[in-house]
């Protein structure tokens, strides 16, 4: 059964206690538990490299080969045009099915395992939503993915290192990379009391398009003294 995280009509949110019959969000087939059937899960084809945070080139051996002053490394576990993966993200984000967070976190865990990344001494933090969007949605899907991801890897989870300072239009409503960069500029600040000096930080988001949101968040963390930033999205559009 799926526990619904929120239901947002008539500006009205309520939690829990709404159940759906168990069916796979990918193919609609019946399942005993969870939200995605084994066939859909196995059909998700993952990446096995990191990417340049500036030009999105694949980075063999997880090393920067181009744009060496990009303030972070970009990772994406899979493709947004992968039907099952997108269905899982939509289930969490737009249908509020909380149980979709765990398999999304597992997909991210499997990705970093494939890459063999050394994640010792990293802390995990989600990209924050704007206050307005967080209120409208009732939850931050990135935090819901980041928390079990951190737990699985035994890494500390810091829910609020970054804060959104202004409400812009969603990055998905922008059309050019230039417009995306302009739209996101200045939208993050270090959260009150957050200390990132010399820290290694993994930023988590559900979807990345051009990496501009991650780049802006990484820039803010770096300006606060963070040592290393790895930005991980479950899916890359
Ligand atoms: Zn399925
Ligand atoms: Zn590059």
Short summary of the structure?
30% of the residues lie in helices and 19% in strands. It is α/β, with parallel strands linked by helices and 237 residues long.
Structural topology:
Elements: E1 2-3, E2 19-20, H1 38-43, E3 50-52, E4 58-59, E5 73-79, H2 83-93, H3 101-115, E6 122-126, H4 131-137, H5 141-153, E7 162-164, H6 177-184, E8 188-190, E9 200-208, H7 212-223, E10 228-236
Parallel strand pairs: 5-10, 6-9, 9-10
Antiparallel strand pairs: 1-2, 3-4, 3-5, 7-8
Helix pairs in contact: 3-5
Bound molecules: zinc ion (ZN) (2 copies).
Describe the model.
It is built from seven helices and ten strands. Helix 3 (101-115) packs across helix 5. Strands 4-3-5-10-9-6 form a six-stranded mixed sheet, sandwiched between helices. It is α/β, with parallel strands linked by helices and 237 residues long. It is globular. The two termini are 29 Å apart.
Apparent shape: globular
Q: From the alpha-carbon coordinates, what is the Rg to the nearest angstrom?
A: 17 Å
In DSSP terms, counting alpha (H) and pi (I) runs of 4 or more, how many helices?
Answer: 7
User: What ranges have pLDDT less than 50 throughout 5 or more consecutive residues?
Assistant: 7-17
> What is the ordering of alpha helices and beta strands?
EEHEEEHHEHHEHEEHE
Give the termini separation: 29 Å
Number of strands: 10
Oligomer: single chain
- Which class do the helix and strand fractions yield? alpha/beta
In percent, how helical is the residue content?
25-40%
Structure ligands: zinc ion
Mean pLDDT value = 88
Which range does the strand content fall in? 15-25%
Order of strands in the sheet with most strands: 4-3-5-10-9-6
Largest sheet: 6 strands, mixed
